[in-house]
Amino acid sequence: MTTHQDVPARSAPGTPSEREQQVLDRIERARRRRAKVKEERITLAHGSGGKATQTLIEAIFLEAFRNPLLEPLEDAAELTMNGTRLALTTDSFVVSPLFFPGGNIGDLAINGTVNDLAVSGATPRFLTAGFILEEGFPVADLTRIVDSMRAAAEAAGVSVVTGDTKVVQRGKADGCYINTAGVGLIEYPGTLGVATARPGDAVLVSGPIGEHGVTVLLARGELDIEADLVSDTAPVHGLVAELLASTSGVRAMRDATRGGVATILNEVARAADVAVVVDEDAVPVGTEVRGASELLGIDPLYVACEGRIVVIVDGAEADTALAALRRHPLGEQAAVIGRIKEDPPGLVLLNTVFGGTRICDLLVGDPLPRIC
């Protein structure tokens, strides 16, 4: 489920009402509370990219492995070796079904890894590929997956340079899982990161959102819904290169995968201690995605993309950045969807099409498990 909380009306411009201040104080206390996993066992929600995932990462993994390179929790770590800046990322793919309109787990794995490097300001260069295969998995399906990976890697200009294969007993997996790592060269002179967002910045998305998540959900055949949809899975390195070559005002970029655009915006608000204010009617959503989302009772802002990026850019450079995105085929429908403001810090506010304002919180639960 998604979480939307009403924001009480202010008593005067810039001055919180007593009720509003109580709500904000309660949220702030919860936000600063030390992360703790309350569940005794892992649930699907821990893989959703939302609150449960964030808690798991901070309470278990970050607590164990804490170091300056890990703490920013960006899509890739920035490493410097002998004066050369590198980006390193890793990802795992468990999408179900393995084949879906517009792609499969193979090209999804390549594109997802390339994109994590690209939004870190790096030129993707080398990838690894690890396969966990279930006994009885058809060799023809594996060949099809690997062929799509080869084609995707060639299109992105990267090489798969090492890998690993493991086979588990029948019933101990779900056909095929893929783990990847990626290395890229950072030549962009600036520093990118969600913590650098500041009041006055603009928020952009590179195109219509939610297409991958809804496509995968409908491909499972469990719902009597027909839609002419394909996944938006694609490598965004060319789009990012066009953007960075056009303006030095980019603060941060993220690809909107698990948890969708809303999760990224919450990460920005929290990391930079700013408010993110989004205009709902400015967010590009395709007719099919909107219709399917309404039928399913889900919000497209929380649905995964695999070829869309969220960009935080200096407000004075918003038009330049938008034009740069729109020059690339993947960014033809890019849009400015909101602004960074100072108050209330740590929150994402959604100006709805009905004229109200709501808090757009992190995802709770996992309405769309295993979409990447």
Identify the strand order in the major beta sheet: 1-15-14-11-13-9-12-10
User: pLDDT under 50 segments (min length 5)?
Assistant: 6-13
Mean pLDDT: 91
Rg over CA atoms, rounded to whole Å, is 20 Å
The number of helices is 9
Work out the count of structural domains.
Answer: 2
Task: Please trace the helix and strand order, writing H or E for each element.
Answer: EHHEEEEHEHEEEHHEHEHEHEEE
Name the beta content range.
Answer: 15-25%
E-strand count: 15
Shape: globular
CATH H-level homologous superfamily name of the largest domain: PurM-like C-terminal domain
**CATH topology name of the largest domain:** Phosphoribosyl-aminoimidazole Synthetase, Chain A, domain 2
Verbal overview:
The chain has 372 residues and is of the alpha+beta class. It has 2 domains: 76-186, 60s Ribosomal Protein L30, Chain: A (2-Layer Sandwich); 191-360, Alpha-Beta Complex (Phosphoribosyl-aminoimidazole Synthetase, Chain A, domain 2), CATH 3.90.650. Helices cover 31% and strands 24% of the residues. It contains 9 helices and 15 strands. Helix 3 packs parallel to helix 4 (139-156) and helix 6 (237-246) packs antiparallel against helix 9 (318-327). The two termini are 18 Å apart.
